[in-house]
Amino acid sequence: MKFGFDEYVHLSSPLHRWDARYKLVGLMALIFAFAFVRDLRMLPAMLLATAVAYSLSRLPPSFLFTRLRYPSLFVVVVVLLLPFLSGQTTLVSLGPIDVRQEGLIAAILIATRFLCILTVGLVLFGTASFLRTVEAMHALRVPDILTDMALLAYRYMFEIGDYLHRMEAAMRLRGFRERLVSIDGLRTLAWLGGSILVRSYERSEWVYKAMILRGYGEGEHGRGEFQANRGDVIAFVGALVVAGAFIAAEYLI
Amino acid sequence: MPAEMVELPDDPVLTVSGLCFSYPDQPDVLKDVSLRVMPGEHIGLIGPNGAGKTTLFLIICGLLEATAGEVVVMGKPVASRQFRPDVGLVFQNPDDQLFCPSVYDDVAFGLRNMKLPRDEVEARAAQALSTVGCAGLAARPVHHLSEGEKRMVSIAGVLAMHPQLILYDEPSANLDIRSRRRLIRLLQGSAETMIVASHDLELLLEVCSRVVLIDKGRVIADGDSRQIMGDDRLMEEHGQEKPHSLVPHLKPH
Amino acid sequence: MHIPDGLLPAQVWATGYAATVPVAWYSLRRIRKAGDPREHIPKASLLTAAFFVVSWIHIPVPPTSVHLVLNGLLGAILGFYAFPAILIGLFFQAVMFQHGGLTTLGVNAIIMGVPALLAHYVFRLRNFKGEASRLKTGIFGFIAGFFALAASVAIFVPLLIFFIPSGFDVATERAAVFALALAHVPLMFIEGVFTAAVAMFLQRVRPGLLVAV
Fold it and tell me: Which among A28, A23, A22, A30 is positioned nearest to A247, based on CA atoms?
């Protein structure tokens, strides 16, 4: 399946080299700071910080466009409606429809926050393999149960997805038409869902055996070695300072 | 050869005596199975589906508990659910066994649970991957591997633990010709004691000098592979066929 | 049922996280108390992946098609593992598909996860007064699926309407909540029917799955 996020994890850039733990906390702090912003005057700074992060990551622009295309649809709808529905102060009249100031401001805020958060998110998760990211979370004391589950689910998701596609193809070849609505059709899809669950469950029994045979539960979770250098810590502090600046500015200005 | 593989030549690696197994309220899956395997032997295990081959393997590994009888590996009785890296099992389906996101992590999994120091983990993993011809795949995500590569990596994960006895469950299933040939060469060249359960009788002829025929949970025959597999009547009686290369040819080719 | 990043004010998404932490903590505690988690982690993990994939199945609802939420079924089958499963599922969606949100992970986890946990108890009622027959499994499967989506909608819709700046007065907003919630009722029926059908299928084919973890 193609959605693997590993396309650009092998590039070399300051962001790729940043210790995954510090990167995770630093960039998430920035993302949360962006989500705090309510003042229009902060937006240019947000966009600048985002652009800097993205260019430092050396991820190609095409990556950003492809990844942002579909998620943006919902926000575009909200953003297109708000200036006409929300608020009392009319900025401009386009015939019978008024463009309202509050709505326009809200729309710009929402759109910019969305864009900046998602872009920094892409930088955070697109510059390290999923495995490395989960190892970083584990090193940051995220509970074993969650990280173990995340890794196993990630590992098998692709196979299970392939199975779904094969089954859908097989069903289509035997005349099942997805556009028809019927109780029968719904039941067939339910059986498809059920068989995916059963197969996964049965596979999990073998996976458990395989894990036990190779000592699952014996060793302590000593996964993922990290070694941070001074540059990692400096970048981390820098990210925290920038995040802090946005939050402070929100409350002080 | 690693130090721990040197042992007295007349001590068996595996002794199975009077093994019986059944699920509660179900007919016997294994009836009075006895077997003795000496160091360095390559033994083939043949029989129709449902004969009990996989069940026997699971009991030898300690994943299932026999209802009667005893299994002793390297002089120590096998206890249920005990971590014994000296016995390795290569599963029928490599996807059941390759549960880590990356190749390296999967091969290293057992080694880490054996609490080996980090450089030894790295050395053994590298050596195992190179033995199976997959040295360049260490960083690859598992779901990007071909069937043949998955099979080899799953074997590497077991080899890395330096087992005294390796059980192979249908190792050549789903392999293309080239991968199958690589597998045969690997098995032929390996010094470890092994039992190979397979429907691929030609492979067994090339790899194993001794064969055990199981049907309906009982050992039917145990001896020289060419003799047993060349016995038309015996093979057909137990759902097998004489391998092609043992069939006398009227026209030489 | 996912709220994307950038939409909600800070108090709301922060509260979402504040609520998620105790629910997650409690779920993990109950999981650990039920025995060695390592035995169930492979099952729970593969089922998490399976649910993730199953939610991609298109269910035709003219003129379009929808993807099911299935948090009722998830809760019915996974019990307390449902909350970690949903956290992981939401995390995957945010990271790999940019669907849902990172700052709104907490809010979305509460929207989907709390109803899932409640659905587990609803589904268990099928054992009340004797062995769970296929009919009872189907009925309680329907109720669990319907109810879980209803509960999610009951949290999601008001959050959306009340916290996105709209400039409408409270009465209009309330009407909007009502209307949007009502629009989801056909989906609740579809989720209920689908959940019932899967539960009955599992009862027939692999009953052990229904009391899996």
Answer: A30
Contact state of B141 with A6 under an 8 Å Cβ cutoff: yes
194-213 in chain C: CB under 8 A from chain A: 194, 197-198, 201-202, 205-206, 209, 212
- ipTM of this predicted structure: 0.92
The one-letter amino acid code at C180 reads L
Asked whether the beta carbons of residue B109 and residue A215 sit closer than 8 angstroms, the reply is yes
Per-residue model confidence as pLDDT tens digits over B64-112:
999 999 999 999 999 888 888 999 999 999 999 999 888 998 999 999 8
From CA C117, how far away is CA B21, in angstroms rounded?
A: 40
The predicted pLDDT at position C155 comes to 93
Exposure pattern of A58-96 as b/e (b: 16+ CB <10 Å)?
A: ebeeeebeebbeebbeebeebbeebbeebbeeeeeeeee
| Residue ranges, chain C, pLDDT below 70 | 166-167, 212-213
- CB A225: neighbour CB atoms within 10 A? 8
3-state secondary structure of A94: strand
Per residue in C187-213, pLDDT (tens digit) is 999 999 999 999 999 999 999 898 866
Under a CB-based contact definition with an 8 Å cutoff, are residues B69 and B18 in contact? Answer: yes
The DSSP line for C10-37 is HHHHHHHHHHHHHHHHHHHHHHHHTS-H
Residue ranges of A 24-53 with Cβ closer than 8 A to chain C: 28, 31-32, 35-36, 38
What is the enclosing helix (H) or strand (E) of B210? strand B210-215
Q: What is the pTM of this model?
A: 0.88
- The residues, ordered by sequence, that sit 6+ positions from C16 with a Cβ below 8 Å of its Cβ are C104, C105, C106, C107, C108, C109, C110
